[in-house]
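Hey team,

Filing this mostly as a record. A colleague (T.K.) asked me to run one chain through the structure pipeline before their review meeting, and I want the input and output archived in the tracker in case anyone asks later how it was produced. No errors, nothing strange. Just documentation.

Input sequence:
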Amino acid sequence: MSANVPINFACGPYDRMAALERGQVKPTGITLNYITLDHPRDVFDRMIGGLEFDASELSASEYICRYAAGHRDLVAIPVFPSRAFRHSFIAVNENVVKKPEDLNGKKVGVQLYTMTAAVWIRGLLQHSGVDLSSITWVEGAVEKPGSHGVPSAEPLLKPVTRVRNESNKSLSQLLEDGEIAATIGALFPNSFGMIAPHIKRLYPDFKSAEKTYFRETSIFPIMHLVAIKRSVLDQHPFVATSLFNAFNDSKEVALRQMRFLGALRYMLPWLPAELDEIAEVFGASGGDPFVYGLQENRKTLEALVRCLEEQGMIRSGVKVEELFVGIRGQNWKI
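Output structure:
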């Protein structure tokens, strides 16, 4: 009897991955070592910078940019551990910004210009009347001075005005002090609310805005995908399909547990109402907001590629099919 292939997989502690993490779901032919890392930036920097893992969660934009630049050491499967609407992640100084167009000509803080959250937000702002080329992008950490991680980003293909935050302040403090007009990204500044009443969300009723956006576009923005080292797949091609099926099985466990209301699994008092809303909004995917697969996510992936092209981060002509390894067969249950 042949031995299983050992795979080291690094990912965040998501509910949809929990069954894999604790060994309740086991990928066929694989002995999985699930390495839990709380901060995605740590996973990305270690995978892209040093290929430390056999497979990992990875920034969708960074993977696509690397692929478009000719790097082929990593191969993605259409599994998306992290997705998020981003209307709620635009913080503004309401003394100077009351509507999207007010951002024109301003300084805007962002953790990393190339991060997926920022790509989606800029696309949203561009279609709301913002001239992205007029903005000075200030890169840095949100809650402390200095940089956000140690990324290995590809060079941009068109000029963009971006500078590092070299002050002794965090982006949150710069926003509070009026030195930048807004922040975008994957974190919301802690200056929001009681600390600094003039710091507001650009979209106060963000939930309604995000639901409208989804109904109009069918896009639930993808943040992260799963990438596997090509050297692993060259030696063991079955690993891609085995992992894909296991990720789906793990997510199904999480969905069943979330929907069991005999005792609330999560600290959400109105979870039943939230589940009803999810079933309504995501009815086309059977009430599963985190559906995996290439065809099921084609529209969202093509929108992300288009944003990357428009923002000068990749060449034109990248097809979503070439970004992912093929998944073979069906996940039969007998």
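Quick notes for T.K.: Residues 176 and 196 are 6 Å apart (CA to CA). The chain has a mean pLDDT of 95.
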